[in-house]
# Entry
Amino acid sequence: MTAANTNVITESELDRIVRWRSEELERAGYSPDGAASLAARLEVNLHEAIDLVKGGCPPDIAVRILL
# Structure
């Protein structure tokens, strides 16, 4: 496998991870835009983001806190 092939696989896997994170955040109550913004930032802890909303924090405020 060449280095170019490895990059394609990694990017594809990263895309799947970001998509999954976004879906989980939307399920928790985030808007599609808010979920996408948070999902793309891999340093944002997914569980923390979900717990904020489950704990009563409005999703738009949670996005501002986390970003």
